[in-house]
Amino acid sequence: MLLLGAVACEKTNGVRPNGNTGPGFSGTMTTDDAANIAAGALSSSSNGIADLAADATLSAANIGSAHPKCGTIRSDTISRKSNAGSPYTYSYNLTYNFQVDCNSGGQPDSLSSNLVYSGSYGGPNMSSTNSGSSIFGVSGLLSTDTAFVINGVYKRAGSFASKADTANHGADNINLTITNLTLKKPGRFIESGSATISITGSTPKQSAFSYTGTVVFKSNGTATLTLNGTVYNINLNTGWLQRT
Predict the structure, then answer these.
(1) Residues with Cβ < 8 Å from 220, sequence gap 6 or more?
(2) What is the average per-residue pLDDT within 34-39?
(3) Are 91 and 80 in contact (CB under 8 A)?
(4) Are strands 89-102 and 147-162 parallel, antiparallel or unpaired?
(5) How many other CB atoms are there within 10 angstroms of residue 168's CB atom?
(6) What is the pLDDT of residue 84?
(7) Region 161-171: what's the mean pLDDT?
(8) Sign of the torsion angle spanned by Cα atoms 27, 92, 123, 44
(9) With helix as H, strand as E and coil as C, how does the chain read?
(10) Taken in order 33, 206, 161, 17, is the CA torsion positive or negative?
(11) Strand partners, 233
């Protein structure tokens, strides 16, 4: 699913972490590096939010159409791998648990979604092995609802390695709090929403790093990431990243 951002040169994606082209890499985290990590947590090419939102809303649509009782619990295990020949590679195992929640009138109107996952991804500029979890509330089960709306938290922790700066590798932790991530029915494409994000970690040459910012989801399949004051556009399908 997603990989983050970036292609191998400035002409095609606008961001080359650290601007390094030869020996003498710094091995320290820059805002561009952190943005690449963020893109990996968001896009479908690296099992990011875009994929998890699609999973949760598909389950909501399927469960809702079955006219479930309040409190119904469903579980689902998914294994995903990238297609052969793709420039973005990934392999993830995911375990979902869903519970049907009802409104004050006793109508099933939302799902509680809990996920644990683990896996890895790689792309032109970054690779990562990680695991994590998400806790989502998904409203929109009623037939009169025109969209699914997700609120909740998403976490990812693991190791990363930059391909643009081979000295830059280490551990990272990503936390997102998602607000009103809206997917219109019936296609379930992201229409709007926002999130706050924090990225922390360390590299062998940098004892600790910390970045915070915001994400605004757009209806055109992109998101705007503002990280420590720098603004980026992210393709939520490929993870392609460009500084604005």
Answers:
(1) none
(2) 94
(3) yes
(4) unpaired
(5) 25
(6) 83
(7) 87
(8) negative
(9) CCCCCCCCCHHHHCCCHHHCCCCCCCCCCCHHHHHHHHHHHHCHHHCCHHHHHHHHHHHHHHHHHCCCCCCCEEEEEEEEECCCCCCCEEEEEEEEEEEEEECCCCCEEEEEEEEEEEEEEECCCEEEEEEEEEEEEEECCCCCCCEEEEEEEEEEEEEEEECCCCCCEEEEEEEEEEEEEEEECCCCEEEEEEEEEEEEEEECCEEEEEEEEEEEECCCCEEEEEECCEEEEEECCCCCEEEC
(10) positive
(11) 224, 242
d(CA 171, CA 164): 17
Cβ–Cβ under 8 Å, residues 38 and 225: yes
Best mean pLDDT range from 20-34, 59-73, 123-137, 212-226: 212-226
161 exposure class (CB count in 10 Å sphere: 0-12, 13-18, 19+): middle
Segments making up each domain of the chain, as ranges: 27-82+101-243
Distance of alpha carbon 87 from alpha carbon 99, whole angstroms: 37
| pLDDT > 50? residue 30 | yes
- pTM of structure: 0.87
